[in-house]
Amino acid sequence: MNAPNKPGSKADRDALRFDMTTAGCTVADIAIEMRTRYRMRPREAWRHAHGWTLQETANRITQASIQHPGEAVAADASLVGKWEKWPSTSSRRPSIAVLRAMAEAFGCRAHDLLDLDDRRSMPDADVHIINSQSTRVAPASPAPTPSLPSLSADPSGTELVRLAADESASWAQWAEASNVGDIALEQLMAEMRGLASDYLTSDPVALFVRTRALRDRVFALLEGHQYPRQAADLYVAAGYLCGLLAWMSSDLGQMRDADTQGRTAWLCAELAGHNDLRAWVLSTRSKVAFWDGRLRDAISFARRGATFRTSGTVGVLLACQEGDAWSELGAHDEALAALARSDDARDGVSGEDEVGGIFACQPARQQNYAAAVQLRVGRPRDALRSADQALSLMSVQRVRAYGTEAQIHISQAAAHLADGEAEGALEALAPVLALPPDHRLAPVTRRLNELTGGVTRPGAQGTAAVGLRAAIEEFCVDSAPRHLALSPGEASA
Predict the structure, then answer these.
(1) Going by fewer Cβ within 10 Å, which terminus of the chain is more open, N or C?
(2) Whole-prediction pTM
């Protein structure tokens, strides 16, 4: 006999939803029952009435909001959880735009998502807007407007003229207000640049936490009101931060989550109309697709990014990424042609990178890509020259980026193995094998695992080969993605 489901557990909620649906109950009926039976907040009850996870709900809210210009919402699982718990501590008040998008996703009215505690905690203007909606949510105006003077139902004469003036003055007062100033925006951009630079040398998990916190600050500001140029700057900051989270997520082996961050970053780039951000987001998405094995997507993203008119070095990286994907597919001519375009792009760089750090392609990084491509197209000696040049450039320019440096050493080792020099490969890998576990990112462990194929070739046998194989296996077991996968996570919602 099966044990009864624990009250409020996922199995219990699923059983309740199934029983009520079978009995002909509507989703609204199920949401009400969820609220009463499990003492849920209304927004959480509606989500469970549909049987959606936090991330599924976030995706639907984001998609629903895109249909209404000026009200786009970049939702994620963490934000949905905070909106659900509001007005309790460690939560976040959902804006009018969020409530409208949420209502459209759930198929209800915005006021169905609020209870008495919500209404008591909301600004009076927001309560008035919600109360004025008596039908299912319809496309809303770009932003909540200020409450206007109350005069007679049918003003005329001087009263009509005065009303029109008061309305304009009231709107101007609202439009002039902003929840962010130019100094605050400058500080946000400085913090974002610091994160993009620190990621090259710091613990990725700690940087992920800091980046997420800054992204949340930017999202919270975007839920308020600011001048259009300030809103555009905030969307740019949000786009770069989501792009950075996407890059970090893929380095930690979480490709699906990286894709989600990449899509949100692209939405921000589109809302900002910012070509450099568009190109960097597509570069990030190309990187994620490459390490996820979607090589055609990686090429498509890289080519699409190259169509934007940009400054800085993003064009160099996009060409390198395209060549990387072509070489993995075995298309040698296309790969070498893309590398040639990266040199042309370097010659055409017209300005500085807006952010820098991980969002920059220094010459050493370009040579790292060249070495990897040359290895795959069967040119190990060219690869070794490119790898040596990359390390020399990093030394001269005092560039520190442990992930790039590790991959350069791996290319050196692969070139030595191609010539049957296991001892040279082991020597080249010494700095990589010395990396602390927190710096052993997914691309590094993947490339090292690929290297073991060269170790098992007949020409690469002997004591050095055996030691190299054992060192690689030990390295990959104690890596950042593995630690993340084995760490206790939050309970699934």
Answers:
(1) N
(2) 0.66
